[in-house]
Amino acid sequence: MNPQTGQIYARRRGGKAEVVRVTAVTAVADEWAEFQFLHGPERVLRAGSGRCKVKNFAAAGWEPTDERADYTHLDGATRYETFRVLDTKGDPILRCSAKRAAFYLRKGYARAIAPNVLQFLDPQTEDRLRELYLGGFTEFFMEVKNDRCVCCGATTDLTRHHVVPKRHKKNVPQPWRSCLSNVLFVCGACHRTYEDAPEPTVTASADWRVFVWAWRDHFRDVLKPRFLPNGWDIISVQNFAALEE
């Protein structure tokens, strides 16, 4: 894809999208696309303009977009497609990310039977899941979890919020750390409200569950989430003994 003078292009860079208008394409020593920033983080807006070699333009993530007065709908985390996964009998068992779906396919654990639908090929994986969750798959397993802010319901400028912050997650020992449903989608405005609130006065305790429940309750108290995925709780695994095996 060669950039065109006057065309608007956008790319995602972390939580804030960058949007530019190409102002010139030159061929001095090498072919360059020069552009003016229309939207993005403060640092690029302060810079005002930039340039990129034409041969690297598409690889840098720039894609054509429509011109409009506001581009905030492009901000936030990239929302990847999700996949429905059926058990070996053909019954829906869970919904997973594209990354997890690729893992199942690469390892030969599942096959694609329709667009965005996989089916396990042998019961080993589903049996392990049933063991960890005591055979009870709640509606949380089939929920689409990346389509709106769990607090206010906004569908744009979404960020991945860690209920137990990354810097504190190390206080949860393994294997228990792997049994947390720790990431929720929160819009930028709600996330800023959360960041402005004082952190809870909680320290790691002998019972790791007390620690993570304190952070869960803090999140609920500060943001009063109205759109949590059905069946969500910070601790997802039920059969702790199975994790120790």
Radius of gyration over C-alpha positions, nearest whole angstrom: 22 Å
Describe the strand arrangement of the main beta sheet, using strand numbers.
Answer: 4-3-2-1-5
* Computed structural class: alpha+beta
Strand residue content: 25-35%
Number of beta-strand segments? 11
The level of helicity is 10-25%
Q: Encode the helix/strand succession as letters.
A: EEEHEHEEEHEEHEHEHHH
Assembly type: single chain
Main pleated-sheet profile: 5 strands, antiparallel
Shape: globular
What does this structure look like?
The chain is α+β, with helices and mostly antiparallel strands. It has three domains: 8-74, no CATH class; 77-133, no CATH class; 138-245, no CATH class. Helices cover 25% and strands 27% of the residues. The protein contains eight helices and eleven strands. A five-stranded antiparallel sheet has the order 4-3-2-1-5. The protein has a four-stranded mixed sheet with strand order 7-6-9-8, covered by helices on one side. A two-stranded antiparallel sheet has the order 10-11. It is globular and about 65 Å long.
How do the strands and helices of this protein lay out in sequence?
Layout: E1 8-13, E2 16-28, E3 30-39, H1 42-47, E4 49-53, H2 54-57, E5 63-64, E6 82-86, E7 92-97, H3 98-106, E8 110-114, E9 117-120, H4 124-132, E10 158-162, H5 166-169, E11 183-187, H6 188-196, H7 208-223, H8 240-243
Parallel strand pairs: 6-9
Antiparallel strand pairs: 1-2, 1-5, 2-3, 3-4, 6-7, 8-9, 10-11
